[in-house]
Give the backbone structure.
Amino acid sequence: GQNIDQPTEMTATEGAIVQINCTYQTSGFNGLFWYQQHAGEAPTFLSYNVLDGLEEKGRFSSFLSRSKGYSYLLLKELQMKDSASYLCAVTDSNYQLIWGAGTKLIIKP
Amino acid sequence: EPEVTQTPSHQVTQMGQEVILRCVPISNHLYFYWYRQILGQKVEFLVSFYNNEISEKSEIFDDQFSVERPDGSNFTLKIRSTKLEDSAMYFCASSGTLAKTMNTEAFFGQGTRLTVV
């Protein structure tokens, strides 16, 4: 079966750095997305990785290792507004998005 | 900035009734999706739609559900004989243009919260 694993919840301090991990087992791989979702709102796109390595975009970076079926989202200089759920999603061989359950990130002052 | 719009934002319906959830995808997008998220649970894929027909559907998307693109702009999800367990947030999304069809991010609408009572 297809499966994406993320930690359920993480807590971090304002101004710090946090890394959210995602491992996946899917039938084929055509890219990995990270989305941010605030409670009661729609997911919003953060990043896309299809090749191995690190993609940096401002305070957020995303890393992919296809051989390990592993990705992480790195958030630097955390702000209170970063409190949200972070969803990892993989497109499989049919270009269908398979979603993880999301990681709820709690930022403390 | 173009966006996906969904109406209504909140729908309350009685068990057994039919509901239609409406979406206006981004105008030059080619792929359309419906997702469901039960409160506190993961986003679940329901169906994808391309070239005026269903391209993929999940096992959740049974005969109770149907989708339609009645005109050039709207994309609807119909749920027949609603059940209590259909209560969820329903998200519409669109992606892909003629210039770049694959591996583009999906843009989500703000969702319709469906409450079946």
